Amino acid sequence: MKRYFTSVAVLLVVLLAVLVAPAVRVRGSSMPFNVGIVKKSVVFLYYPKGESLEVGTGFLVEIPSKVGPTQSRIAVITARHIVDPQWAGCSWKNPQQIYA
């Protein structure tokens, strides 16, 4: 089942994309690592569960496109039990929407 994020998540992604700083290399790594954006990429996730909220965290990553070097997608990475609590053995249904 697809998970949908609200327009708040889209707005957050757009704001973070605007704030991208030049990539720097981390000592001992051959991959470019954007330290500034990593510090700003943590998101808090939540969805209603009865009269309370189920909460978690995630972080944003930019996935470069193989089609064009100027194209990319932003994805939210989180633990599976946040998006699929039934997999983790929880008694409540999987969320239809998760808010960031």
- Pick out the low-confidence regions: 1-25
Q: What is the overall pLDDT average?
A: 74
Q: Give me the side-by-side strand order of the main sheet.
A: 4-5-6
**Alpha-beta classification:** alpha+beta
Strand segment count: 7
Portion in helices? 10-25%
Order of helices and strands: EHEEHEEEHE
**What is the gyration radius calculated from CA atoms?**
16 Å
Q: What kind of sheet is the major sheet?
A: 3 strands, antiparallel
Binned strand content: 35-45%
- Total helices: the number is 3
Overall geometric form: elongated
Secondary structure layout plus pairing:
Blueprint: E1 4-5, H1 7-18, E2 24-25, E3 32-33, H2 35-39, E4 42-49, E5 52-64, E6 72-78, H3 80-83, E7 97-98
Parallel strand pairs: 1-7
Antiparallel strand pairs: 2-3, 4-5, 5-6
Q: What features would you highlight for this structure?
A:
100 residues; 3-stranded antiparallel beta sheet; alpha+beta; single chain; 7 strands
Walk me through what this model shows.
The protein is built from 3 helices and 7 strands; from the N terminus they run E-H-E-E-H-E-E-E-H-E. It is an alpha+beta fold. It has one domain (4-20, 33-98). It has a 3-stranded antiparallel beta sheet. A two-stranded parallel ribbon has the order 1-7. The protein has a two-stranded antiparallel ribbon with strand order 2-3. The chain starts with a strand and ends with a strand.
